[in-house]
Amino acid sequence: MYAARLRTKEGTQKIYKHPKESDSMPAPAAAPHGDHADLDPRVEALVTEVIGRVADKWTMLILETLIEQGELRFTQIGKAVPGISQKMLTQTLRQMERDGLVLRTIHPVIPPRVEYRLTDLGGTLAEAFCGVWLWAAANLERIEASRAAFDQRVAKR
Prior knowledge:
Strand order of the largest sheet: 3-5-4
Number of helices: 5
Radius of gyration: 21 Å
Helix content: 40-55%
Distance between the termini: 36 Å
């Protein structure tokens, strides 16, 4: 079971606990106020940021590229990530470097050669992201069936 913290419009917090699919599925209930009082606000902020990063398609595509191909130059990453602009590639790599996910190495040659590779921390995020791929593969047919059933219901309206 995991807990999700949500903020209401009034700024108050509610924590909803979501059971695993194998557990019974009662309606989400707000947890007592004291259950989250001991959580470090820095952890909450980090989780929010990491979720935003994981939800960012460019970060995930760059992460996947570096996992598959290892250390790459800026232009190689740009070619391997379809549709990314130079500006977005620069911004994303800088943020990933700031977060400690990639290591930027400048080689003292003319012209300068800059390469990027995943750090150990980036590798652990890649492992966590791999879980999403495994979940998607395991549940693909169920999701497609659900979507088809939904589309049929909507089409009949």
